[in-house]
Amino acid sequence: MTTMTLYRQLLIWMLVVFFALITSVFVIQFNTTRDFLREQQSTEIDNAISAVGMALAPYLEVNDTISAESVINATFDSSFYSKVHLSMLNESGEIVRSYPTQVAGVPNWFQSVIIIEPITRSTTLTSGWMQLASLTVTSSSIYAYQQLWQASLQLLIGFTATFLLGLLFLAFILSKVLKPLKAIQLRARQMSNNQFGDPLAIPKIRELSDVVVAFNHMSAQLKIHFEQQAQEADNLRIRAYQDPVSGLANRSYLMTQLNSWLTSPSEGGIALLKVDLITDAYALDGYEAGDHLVQTLSVRMKELINDDYTIARLNQCEFMLLAPNITAAELKIIGRSLLHMTSELQSDPLDLAPVQATVGLVMRNHDDNITSLLAQADNALMQAKQQPQEPLALFDVKEQSDTSKQTTMGKQQWKALVDEAIANKLFKFNFQKAIDHHQNTLHQEAFAYIKKGSQHYSAAQFLGAIEQLNAGTHMDMHIIDELFNMLNSDKNVGNIAVNITKSSVNDTGFIRWLANKMQSNPQLKERIIFELPEICFIKHSDNAGLLCEIIHQNNFAFGIDNFGHNFSSIGYLNKFRPAYVKLDFAYTHQIEHQVKADVLASITRTANNLLITTIATRVETISQQEKLTELMVRGFQGYVVDKINSEKTV
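Structure for GGDEF domain-containing protein, as requested:
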């Protein structure tokens, strides 16, 4: 039940009082006018009888009835009289005149409600002591009704105009007086959602000024508390997963990402960089000089980061880059970029000194594990040291069959396949449920793949190439179109989450297209959710903010994928307000370690305070789900929740 606002209650009661006053004045004025018209009618008939009596006497004395009749006709020929009766006393003659009594221009209902009775006056006409005739005159109510009706209309119009002007004036005054209270109400709603703006202006109303001062103080304290909580979560995360000197991921975080990568069907490789220049700086110039080189190199290496790559500092002078879904040629380009970045640290203006670093590259094999992969990286590093001209070596021990060689494609080939799939509607979808801690379905995430003949191509195979070519916009448009059509045609399909690529987030044409799509399908606002990669909020916050604002304006929702992968401050959640965040696998893996559990709890606590659902992905066991629930994770997705649903062909 919706409660009435204070403004509306005050306005209604003030209008009730104002209306009562106006109505009272109207009734008093109406009665005064009616009584005046009645009195006027009585006075008029008395004056008429007196005047006609004197005029008739000379003619009645000589029995001149014709002249007497003329006098009566002349005197009483108006709307003031309804009947005139003159009866001769000395003979049986009489004169009777009747006038119309129908009132023109006055509604019948008004005459029925307002009764104005005619007045009858009788008098005896005499000449000296002799009685000549008896005169009876009955007034007419026509004039009184007409005057009273006109007066009523004027009163009604005047009082209606006064009431409307009073309504506007009272509404303006009340809105002015209650404006500080409205601001307090709005700020209270914002504070309930952990949104803190500038302090409220202090009103001049004494009672409200103290309230506003207290409110501003409370808002400032809550804002500080939230910022401290977010900072605490960031600090815990940094201590657990981030190298304090370089700002890159640490060895623990990298091992988690390697484990996740090796258990997925993804391709790609790793690059191990060893910088002897940093080792020498620590040994010869001290920790400050060594730390400076590490920080300088880290800033340059972060330029390589995208939402798939992970760069970590393993020890004092070794760094590793994990690059899923990448070819050997592309991995070599990255390796050479790392060597070039390292050479920039050297004081060699002539560029003659050899690079004091080596890079070992390893392409993943299908049966690799972490131990074998790191061993191959060390071997590649030793081989690179034997090549002073270009200290870089690539290990690619994967033995490809003829079939796999045929399916290995470059970026342009993947793009051509995607274009063909769009043109021929070869995209199919698998769906995986995400549930809350009460086992209710939050949504189904759509996983697109291409089915061409007997071949299946998962998104993991072609998405990296599409992102590198910034060609994801048309693919996203096609997939969103297909899912919108599916939801419109089948009302029983539950909520669907659809991923949007980084290239689409940075494409203003796509943003306009999506805005039109949402405006054309408002009935789907609670049935489809857009999932954006976290890297967009870090590197392209303006474009991501524009897209999120348009999604909010159309009352749709969005979530953030791979949350926490990029080690940025989680304070941006308060700015963008997603419906949910899907935690990076590193935060929900090996949570039996207390440090990792504390990090996860701090992140979920901050998100929950903002009413943002935290969803853990790749949840594989009941015990893992129960532990995550204890750490305030409110959503789960993975094998323990639901097997990949049966394929749905669009």
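The chain has three domains: 6-165, 242-402, 409-637.
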